[in-house]
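Thread: Newbie trying to understand structure tokens

Hi all, I'm a second-year student working on a class project, and my supervisor (Dr. K.) asked me to get a predicted structure for one chain before our next meeting. I've only ever worked with sequences, so writing a 3D structure as a token string is new to me. If someone could post the tokens and maybe explain what I'm looking at, I'd be very grateful. Here's the chain:
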Amino acid sequence: TISPTLLTRTSLLNGLTMLPTLAPLTLLAALAATILPSPADAQPAPPPNLVLWMTDDISYVNYSFAGASVSTRRIAKLGRDGIIYKKAWSNAICRPTRAMLMTGHYATETGWWGQNHVAPTNLGTDIGTFGNLAKSQGYRTLMVGKWQLKGRAAEAGFDHYCMWEHSDVRSKVLLREDFVNFSNGPVFDPADRAGKGVQNRYWHPLIVKHFWPAEHEMLITSPADFGPNIFVQCIQDFMKVNKSQPFFVYWAGVTAHQHWDEVVQDQAFIGMPIVSKIDIMNINGREPEGTGSLASNIEYVDKMAGFLKKVIREEGHFDNTIFVFTSDNGSHGFGKGQTTSEEGVHVPVIVWGGLVKKRGKTGRLFSLVDIYNTFSDLMGAGVDPSRPNSYSWAKYWKGESNAVVRRWMIGYRGEEDQNGVIQPNLV
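---
Reply by user tm_fold:
Sure, no problem. This is what the structure looks like when written as tokens:
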């Protein structure tokens, strides 16, 4: 007889007359070895769907898994089933974090040091964002929420968006004409806004949408409509129609940022919708005026997280989706804007999904600058060596490695002094 290990395709072709001498089981093994594809010939796994939700102004310490009395059991459950970073840093204020998150670069490369300083760079056209990267890798891309940087979401690689629009006549007067604050399309004439919402991000919101097959449009909303719910609905609609192509969703949330009242020129925490459990699409009312709080805002974030988790599962995306939950900086009144301690930069980072190894809480150091190259690695593009400050956690998330990824972190905020010179403050 012939050993199956010596039976190659060549020997089969040249020695078919010898096949009858093989025992039946030996023959079966020989044929399987030559006909069935080897592991090297197997099709690679499809790239994962990526969902990133960055909430607005919520510190790590504000969650129940960190000891807070606020009820965030749904977000805590995501972490128990995935990963909770106990020591994750952003920057001390909004815009520098957004620029760093989207590009994998510090402000030394992006120019976005502070909240009041408008950097000259357009992240999408001048540097390239994770949206541009995702699009180049064949992903369908969606951004919802707030923009708050120079340029537009479409230039940053997002073909579809559902965004809070804030570029009205007032902001056009206060800001340079070429800096469209929060805008992602044409600057609309105020006359076009009749009945379509006011400058709010919460109740009766002003939201611009570019979705298939509709063109850029301003949504008609009412005082009973809640902006964050509209963002979640856009994500759900997007997931329903994207079943055969990988997608990337970036939700730059507006909750739990305080609401700015244009009439009285004051800000306060807005009252949240009254809903049953995570049934956020069925609003039964809203908290009485003046009763909104950071706690009630965070509890509503928890309900939205539960709803989004439900959508990911029901739309059949769980097995091939990685969901990352975080915040842009510390909470208002606790650490936001501060660089004298880590209170301004200590934010939650939770990773969950069918591809994520269940690790629970970890004390490893994580910086939001790492999101770019982690996503690049997961998308199949590998680690971009031109963004050396962004480390990849792809293997750690998937359970393929326990190696230490990061040994140091930095956070910052810098504003212009009276001479127009940026004065960086580091954490």
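A couple of things are worth pointing out once you decode it. The chain has twelve helices and 14 strands. The first strand starts at residue 49 and ends at 55. Feel free to ask follow-ups in this thread.
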